């Protein structure tokens, strides 16, 4: 499999995508079909804004379904490497950054990254920098905005 097409995902990430796909294929498609049916019933389709909006939404739903199916088809499950004290994808890491209170972060593949949910991509500058580090290790990392961060690994789970 071409590495550019591989999507590294945790089990939780795969389940979330499967759930979204099921919701889109059942609930959202059906809701959209009803909206299209109601809009058609209003008559002239050439100047029917409701019909146009429903068709646009239909295209978005179908595009997202295709996207998720592609991701799942090319997904690689992130497995626990058994090395419990080394930072790797799929691990939860407690880090102290610039001497602030330690915070927990999950190291995930780029598709699952969500900084607002403390999920750091393994491809981000911080994610790349901490991969392979162990509890007690420290490192200075330069971000894309040229900030220096002093990162200490407090714990790895």
Give a brief description.
This protein has helices at residues 11-41, 49-73, 125-130, and strands at residues 7-9, 75-77, 92-97, 103-108, 119-121, 138-142, 148-156. The chain is an alpha/beta fold and 157 residues long.
Q: Topology of this protein?
A:
Elements: E1 7-9, H1 11-41, H2 49-73, E2 75-77, E3 92-97, E4 103-108, E5 119-121, H3 125-130, E6 138-142, E7 148-156
Parallel strand pairs: 1-2, 4-5
Antiparallel strand pairs: 3-4, 3-7, 6-7
What Rg do the Cα atoms give?
22 Å
Mean pLDDT, to the nearest integer, reads 88
The name of the CATH topology of the largest domain is Helix Hairpins
User: Tell me about the biggest sheet?
Assistant: 5 strands, mixed
**What fraction, in percent, of the residue positions are helical?**
25-40%
Q: How many helical stretches?
A: 3
Describe the overall structure.
- The chain has 157 residues and is an alpha/beta fold.
- The chain folds into 2 domains: 3-77, Orthogonal Bundle (Helix Hairpins); 92-156, Roll (Chitinase A, domain 3).
- The chain has helices at 11-41, 49-73, 125-130; strands at residues 7-9, 75-77, 92-97, 103-108, 119-121, 138-142, 148-156.
- A 5-stranded mixed sheet has the order 5-4-3-7-6.
- A hairpin with a 5-residue loop joins strand 6 (138-142) and strand 7 (148-156).
- Helix 1 (11-41) packs antiparallel against helix 2 (49-73).
